Predict the structure.
Amino acid sequence: EAQVTQNPRYLITVTGKKLTVTCSQNMNHEYMSWYRQDPGLGLRQIYYSMNVEVTDKGDVPEGYKVSRKEKRNFPLILESPSPNQTSLYFCASSVTTGGLNEKLFFGSGTQLSVL
Amino acid sequence: AQSVTQPDIHITVSEGASLELRCNYSYGATPYLFWYVQSPGQGLQLLLKYFSGDTLVQGIKGFEAEFKRSQSSFNLRKPSVHWSDAAEYFCAVGARGATNKLIFGTGTLLAVQP
């Protein structure tokens, strides 16, 4: 089954404790992206990757890191989480045709709470 | 830079009634336009998209949307709503040549009354 898998689904942590949210897709997609969803703000892009070893900032990259060492994996790293990073996070991947991302496939989300 | 507005935060319709969710965009040229749906506890799923051609596009689950350039709108419609359509709906706009930078609206939460 084609899918984007995020782990964990729920995470409670404390300020300053490094954490990683994993994301894996089994569709051989080149494009992957991370979003955060906050009430009243919709989805905002954190980072995206056009291919292995190619990453770029989205609209809200501060406080986050990513890496793309393999095509299928795109982990999101919070080196020193702060309470304003409490949010619902989504990973997505996409079919890319002629440079056009036609359809995003989303994971089920990770609800992060930073105390 | 492109932007997208969904003016309705919350809409309630009766089952069997028609539905129209509004989406307005701002972009200097014809953008790529998308509607996604998010069911409770789930990720987003693509309903339909407009890239070019016929301005009335059909999607999954009986939804359709019409691109109106003169009004900078891409409203989502369904003739008869089912209880299972209760969800949050997001309009998104992508710039030509840069769809890696999709901009999402703030969403419209749809409730369906029996």
Chain B has a mean pLDDT of 92. DSSP finds no helices and twelve strands in chain B. The interface with chain A takes residues 9, 32, 36, 41-46, 49, 51, 90, 94, 97, 99-102, 104-107 of chain B (CB under 8 Å). The CA atoms of residues 68 and 90 of chain B lie 18 Å apart.
